[in-house]
Design a protein that fits this description.
about 0% strand
Length: about 120
Amino acid sequence: IETLDQAIRHYPDDVRPLASRGIYLARLGKREAALKDAELALLIDTNPPNLYQVAGIYALTSRQEPTDRLEALRLLSAALKKGFGFEYLEIDRDLDPIRDLPAFRRVVDASRTLQMAIPRRS
């Protein structure tokens, strides 16, 4: 976390260390600090990779506050609908707190269906 703190100080516009710190804080059970990083990360960047990573923060904090599942699913859905994250779904342990929810499977299935329906550009 100290290394990420330094990276954030040196590169305040780079969302990656901020979102990463949020993940580590959430893993440590520091929900308030993790959500602060999540909210700031979303203010800086709403691109799919960041949406996916912040979804992981909310998934982890849902162990303490079950209502955080809704935000985790919303952000995960937004990332997947834009085509990001499918390759990580099966191996991303940060999503374990929401993985067994029926809504998780519906989000993944609906996003896959949407991706198949979108014509690919050459």
